[in-house]
């Protein structure tokens, strides 16, 4: 049997995708890149194909896919170029693929992530929106497919995963403590927040990330989505999940046990650490992240999150309490609102208003299939878009 693991990287041109390839690059003896996918960044995808020579590359634009195929042919690279959303499922479920990095942004990642689980892959989950929207069906698929694994990549969830023993009992856990940096607007007053710009929002103090998650960090919706993600990943129930603001981003999250012991994972703010952990789990490999120097960062502080100034965090708790499709509606409305904020079409506090109004317009029914979630996601997007236009 070969020692190599074949990997598909969904969203390879994004922040997590590029970090994944940086870790893979350090281990040519362990990983072979089988497929790379992007929504539209032709130049980056081309450069990645030249370096990793995958069997498949996907770019979600027919014209760009032709250009990419031509350029690769000129370089004598035999990568097959595809361009439809169905092709994302195809490369996430290829028989020879062992590991799927799910690093698409937004609920477009749901279907390929779910199908990779159903195909029994080891799925490395960065795409938190897929669990937020369809946590129930992803967990069902995990139960039905005993070969499949879902390993968290989000730094907080990786920290919790690393702080839990393999067969933990929920009864032994007092609390899952998700740490939050507080984002770029932590000290801002409500008045100041009324006029912040997307340019300010995407300048995160500690982490370098894609635009959507950077805005989510500035509204604290990112932490809200992570609460929902933790709910589906760790099975403790919402009552045991708590958010603590920790501006230094050194403790990436913690678990408090019934004996009052707290186990935490610490490190520098570099996604290559949780990516390497997920890739090699249950082993450890070199990640390329900088090591933490306690002499340079000796202060760790903690604060309560402010639900008044950052209402998105409360909306996420409310959606999870409502259950059913409510988190999918919350997520879809948030995606539309964040995109409008990034385009300067709405202001910071319009984001939570749009989400709130969209949530109020939908019954929070239960769901049993991915088709139902995709339908609700589309409807909620339409509704949120219509509010922005009026
Ligand atoms: P990004 O915007 O930098 O990259 C997104 C990737 O997805 C790109 O390759 C893009 O081409 C692709 N993509 C975008 N829309 C798509 C669509 N509709 N269909 C298919 N592909 C599409 O985002 P990112 O910061 O790398 O985040 C990716 C995911 O990882 C998000 O769910 C985010 O919440 C999560 N995450 C990111 C970080 C981080 O540090 N960046 C940390 C934790 C979790
Ligand atoms: Mg995170």
Keywords, separated by commas or semicolons:
47% helix, 16 helices, 15% strand, four-stranded mixed β-sheet, binds magnesium ion, alpha/beta, Rossmann fold, binds nicotinamide-adenine-dinucleotide, 390 residues
In words, what does this structure look like?
With 390 residues, this protein is an alpha/beta fold. It has a domain at 5-152: NAD(P)-binding Rossmann-like Domain (Rossmann fold), CATH 3.40.50. It is built from 16 helices and 11 strands. The strands form 2 sheets. It has a 7-stranded parallel β-sheet with strand order 4-3-2-1-5-6-7, sandwiched between helices. A 4-stranded mixed β-sheet has the order 9-8-10-11, with helices on one face. Strand 1 (5-10), helix 1 and strand 2 form a beta-alpha-beta unit. Helix 6 (128-144) runs antiparallel to helix 14, helix 13 (311-322) packs parallel to helix 15 (348-361) and helix 14 (326-342) crosses helix 16. The longest helix is centred in the last third of the chain and has 20 residues, at 370-389. The chain is globular, with a radius of gyration of 20 Å. 47% of the residues are buried. Bound molecules: nicotinamide-adenine-dinucleotide and magnesium ion.
